[in-house]
Amino acid sequence: MTVQEAKRLAKKIMMAGEIPLLVGHFGVGKTDIAREIAAEHGRKLIILVLSQMEPGDLIGLPVRDETKTKFLPPDWWPDDGNVLILLDEINRAHRSIRNAIMQLLVDKRIHNHILPEGVWLMASMNPPDENYDQVELITDPAFLSRFFILEVHPDVNEWVEWARRNAVPQEIIDFIGKFPEFLSVNYSVSLKATIKPSPRSWYKLGRVFALLSEDEKKEFGYILASGIVGPEAAKVFVDKITLDIPSSIDVLLQGKIPSELNVHEANGLLVRLVDFIASIEDTDLRRLLEKVDTVADNLIKLSQVVPKDSFEAFARMLVSLSNTPGLKGEFCEKLLRKIVTKI
């Protein structure tokens, strides 16, 4: 998602009392999102760079209180609830630090220190790949289940607007406008594939969904759901609540295609079509094979209302499936030939 989309959703998530986790490459604007949200809501911003901290920096120093030992609050601990705390670089934090912040994520407290009511929490990290210095990959489902994962990618138009506001030389703005591929790295490894649904995650999703308008549910429902219950459950959930999006079989055989689709609806529909064809039983596959001309016509019709690059990605998936032995490979190969002939 773009920086502005991540900012919009992060605010909704924190308003619901939950915690967004921004995942993106260095320089994409994760910290700026926190700064802008804090400024817009008049909140003090506290940034904890976890890779540079030890457990004592989170817990505070121990002191003797009569017959007991207690911990003094660390110097960053907020005095009131009008605060946004950014837990930065959690992917580079030692396991002992992640263990220490677990109580903060779960109970909004560390030992005898309790966060004031109303404090917002946000976290950020780089993608989980070999390009970053990480203590270890974060795959603990109990840890990840505390967050709404929002994967942030740079958008050229957004960056150009930001660059103009921040007095970036026009030569650089013009260069990026002409060669957008040089704005940022374009590879990404998703954390979402490791997320599985749980009673807690559905509860968290419900708290955020309660703050969304119907239009926001349609536009951002899948992004939010996939970041807390995982992509598989999110697709089924969004299919269920988004009644105006047709089923895969309706698209392929009946040509029931909306006249307009936003980018999220379009990508969601194409993903569902790929999953449908990849997992279809031979009985239904024979039905599609008998009507392959109709299926090709309907997919060509679909290509007119979805982004060109999204449909090209869908076609590449069909090419991959055409190499599958048996009826599925035969169907995909014949379908691709029909599409190429008809275009």
UniProtKB/TrEMBL annotation:
| Residue stretches making up the AAA+ ATPase domain | 16-157
Provide the GO MF annotations for this entry.
Answer: ATP binding; ATP hydrolysis activity
Q: Which Pfam family, any one, appears in the UniProt record?
A: AAA_5
Q: Which InterPro entries match?
A: AAA+_ATPase, ATPase_dyneun-rel_AAA, ClpA/B, P-loop_NTPase
Protein name stated in the entry: MoxR family ATPase
Species assigned in the record = Fervidobacterium thailandense
